[in-house]
């Protein structure tokens, strides 16, 4: 073969069995990918760096462990589907057993994603596509530590007396500041922020007060309208009146759309019919013990139903997924008005929609970020969880999906959410809250030597017994402690919003990878996406010589990995690596090309593009 000719390699990450890194100081860094069917691709060279960033990003999507026999060989470990299914069942997040959804999903992945469990089931897909045996489930701690040492400066490993368990220690964090909570924002304070025309002055100061103490219930409905984007922070009274009129008109226009669909139309509109059925079921079981929703003939149940159905018309791509009713119910209780509740719910969903989307990348990234944060904040607890089959943090799934809705009492969740909505001290403060809760439970977990099942049960049992104010104080203290750590890795700074935007890597241009796609495809794969369909899977931007190409290009002669967007290998990595090899003018598909032969109707690809 002509050494000057280039070719692309492409494969589904689910097919990846292992990869081998080049030894240090042996010229250009390279990676050799090896698939489960034995296919071994030629070395992928990184002339301008980027190999470490690529592998680090891949760790968000697959479990990697270092071979005990070859320090340059990394093995890809399948997730354990039983652990995730058990986690979801134990946490009582959904009304049906996950097993039934799993079976349906395996039989018909595309159909199931449009059903009741819908986008959340896609979180299961990544762990169910290629299950192997279920022994040796946990990554050896020595291998975890080796990887951590590559990524986090100042860390070292110390051996504990207990066989098979190691603790990751590090440079000591600075002292944790003492944090004081304040009184809620009062009506008098609230009114003092408005000028004669109704503009809010000193918006940042106002948000600080809300973060420190929340909002008095008497003014909560008005304050939430600003926090959730119903009103603009810089609006005057006149503009807000105009905004509200437009929102009222738009809401009833959308409501009329589904209200006027005939039974005959709905018979041929399967997706809407399925969503209606799921909403019907969920409305009847959402917060029925709360007086606002109690009673079989309670009119508020109909309002809850109408808002959720209208949201399906407002955001038809997302539609309805179990868990959304948990987000709506506290908002409706506060607003006591259908239109106001709808638009505030829409604003709240803008913040958490990535939790419910079909590819489930948002959930996977957030669980991974909790793990990364704990590696620095509490390496002892992190190592313990890893050693007891819980390093995937599946037990936090419910916390993140519905933002602690079922972990606190109803009046407390209102206070917690308004604190989170201030985006103080960072947009990922909910992840720090997770750390604070786990720190409070650390002694119970360790002293009782809980394993996977016991950890899961204990986390479920502490629901409605977590002290809110103490948790918020502890969470803010953890943030300040990490912020003041001089050797805090950039990856943690990104999560905490401590890096200037100019210092963020290219992959973080989509807000800390929360909305990153999940496909790493060849330059030709994206061209098959149907016109007008939604591209759910942005790709690694390392085009093979053309600025518009999407994917990974490798030179047969060890030639350049061409820069795209200013980075030799931008780390906006995805799960599906659709790799085709091109020789001369011809093309052949290598190992199935899992990444991208065209989106199905509505922008969903039936191939392995689902990613958690």
From TrEMBL:
Domain Rab-GAP TBC residues, every copy: 214-424
Start-end of Gly residues biased regions: 587-602
Entry keyword annotation includes Disulfide bond: no
Listed SUPFAM superfamilies: Ypt/Rab-GAP domain of gyp1p
Region ranges (Disordered): 516-564, 587-612
Composition skew (Low complexity), residue ranges: 518-527
One GO cellular component, as annotated: cytoplasm
A Pfam family it matches: RabGAP-TBC
Subcellular location: Cytoplasm
Keyword annotations: Acetylation, Cytoplasm, GTPase activation, Phosphoprotein
Alphabetized GO MF terms: GTPase activator activity
Reported function: Acts as a GTPase activating protein for RAB7A. Does not act on RAB4, RAB5 or RAB6.
Subunit details: Interacts with non-phosphorylated form of RAB8A; phosphorylation of RAB8A at 'Thr-72' disrupts this interaction. Interacts with ARMC12.
Name of the protein described by the UniProt record: TBC1 domain family member 15
Organism of derivation: Plakobranchus ocellatus
